[in-house]
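Lest this sound abstract, we let one protein speak, letters for residues, whole numbers for local backbone shapes, and leave readers to judge:
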Amino acid sequence: MLNLKITSLDNEHTLLVAISNGDHKSFETLFLHYYKPFGNYVFKLLEDISLTEDVLQEVFLRIWTDRENLHTITNFKDYLFIITRNRVYNLLNEKSRKNVLFESLNEKANFKQIPQEEEEHKADLELYYTLLEQEIDNLPLQQQKIFRLSKLKKMKYEEIARMLDISVETVRKHMYLANQTLKNRLKGKEGGILLVILSAVYQRF
């Protein structure tokens, strides 16, 4: 098994109780604490930055959609590790990777066969993307374009600037305005959780 050294938050149980009650700010605190070390862990297994980002999105969105029982969890770090490990396994299974790769990963991460994720989690993910897309569509055209290139196409600011023939500073300004607008419009809504995850995950680990 890979050595995963991560310190739990001192007020973690309090955060879990708050998240169980739908508190977005507590979820953001928990997410920002764990996403980077777990991102590094997933990347060591997959060796693919794009797949790693996909795993992080789905894992943390699943935690949010299943939040009602979070207050009963006594060791969140272990809980998160199991969900993450299993999602990596399912992802590789879905992609029909070669058995050699599965055997290698079994040795590295102690994988076990588990059922496919429930359809309801996929539906939740689609719903969050729909809510976010609706608000992106309401942004000014240039902000829409730049936000999608940065957050959804995963392009760097320098690449966007070259593509659109504008300065990097202009890209940065549009991204700031787009993020502020989306945060305000999605505050307290389910799509806001996806925005938090996208904003952090695509900064890379």
Notes: The CA atoms of residues 86 and 111 lie 7 Å apart. The chain is about 75% helix and 0% strand.
